[in-house]
Amino acid sequence: MSPTSATPTNIMPQDKKTQSGAIALSRAARYGASVAMAAVIAALTYATTRSPLPVNFPWALSSLLAVAVASIYWGVGPAALLLLLMAVSADFLIPDLHVAIPGPHLAYSWMAAIRMALFVACGCAMIFLAHTRKRLAEQSAVKTDVVRSFQTMMLPQTIPAIPGYTIACHYQPAREDEEVGGDFYDLFTLRDGRDIVLVIGDITGKGKEAAASVALLRYTIRAYAKVGMPPDEVLARTNALLLDDQDAHSNATVFIGVLDTITGVLTYCNGGHELPVVASRSGHYRLLTGTSMILGVMPEAEYELKSDRLDSGEAMIVLTDGVTEARNTAGKFLDTDGAAALFAQSIVSSKARDTAERFDRNLRNYAPGVQRDDIAFVVIARRRKTHVRTASAPASQAA
User: Which helix (H) or strand (E) holds 306?
Assistant: First the structure.
């Protein structure tokens, strides 16, 4: 897939006029809404003060709430206008707040002035607090968008498209978390597309430190694998690099597998990561066992090389602990065996995308509450044994 180039858009003078007109109209509408709201509250205040019934309209409370709403939705200017209009109208409509023209009872006028000053001070405080809340919410939203965009950029933008195999990737950040998580995956090919290299991992920690470690780990593993190192040596060298990097201060669980797309043989090494699952539509499944030490902990850690085979009609999933640690309403973890059984139940066709979508739906049904951790998984399904040169497809379209 060739990269797309972005060209700047030139705004013509007529477009600028239209945009300026729309902004002015929106500003006028906000100020007009403030005037209308002030008129409604003033009318209600006037009606109750002239009514023979012993009913008093809560003018002060209503005005302050209206000012807060105006500050949140319309901005500081309309809210300040509304506060001014309410203070002026109250001076004429409410005898206890009449301070514009001091009467013969100066003490009473000073008390009214103090009351009015307190009302205005409360209104200004409401504007400040409401505006601050809105600004913090906007900053939080921008931060979340930037974080998610940055995390998406650290994932592969294209995945291999090989006849006979379908691949689907899924990544879902935790909704309640605004920090960059440590989950990552990578997919690339070797030997002119004959081998698919699948990497998935989880870095400890969150934030910019985790993001830096993810970038280091992903491209280090890719570089070692590209020169032909077997998975066990890749993890051993990456482990040594993490320990030598004084700025990393991270450890990680990593699974790396090299799948021969002609024979279906998978050579893999697991550095303390969640066990992958191979299953078929019959409902049978098996775990790819054999786990070594996590990376970044022990200098002389040994990593065991294992192998398995992905036969026609079978599918494999590699996942992070956000799946196995998903909890149902009773607080029970899904765990490894539960995730394996759930995956076997999710294989409804030979397409990896269908299986991934069904697995995600089944996972949400099992754990319908708040997602506590990032969730990442990759599904590879084998349909037939023919093989041609590989192409690349967008990650969102591969299936």
Answer: strand 306-309
Distance CA 273, CA 170 (A): 17
Quick: pLDDT tens for 94-139: 655 544 444 454 445 666 677 777 778 888 887 888 778 878 888 8
Candidates 305, 167, 318, 189; CA nearest to 253 is 318
Judge contact between 339 and 319, C-beta under 8 A: yes
- Using CB atoms within 10 Å of the CB of residue 367, give its burial: 0 to 12 exposed, 13 to 18 middle, 19+ buried: buried
Bridge partners of 287?
A: 277
Three-state DSSP string of 264-277: CEEEEEEECCCCCE
* CA–CA gap between residue 70 and residue 175 (Å, rounded): 29
CB 238 within 8 A of CB 272: no
Q: Are 184 and 218 in contact (CB under 8 A)?
A: yes
The edge-to-edge listing of strands for the beta sheet with 314-319 is 165-172, 375-382, 314-319, 277-280, 285-287
CA 255, CA 253: separation in Å to the nearest integer? 7
Provide the 10 A C-beta neighbour count for residue 293: 19
pLDDT one-digit tens code per residue, 31-46: 888 888 888 877 877 7
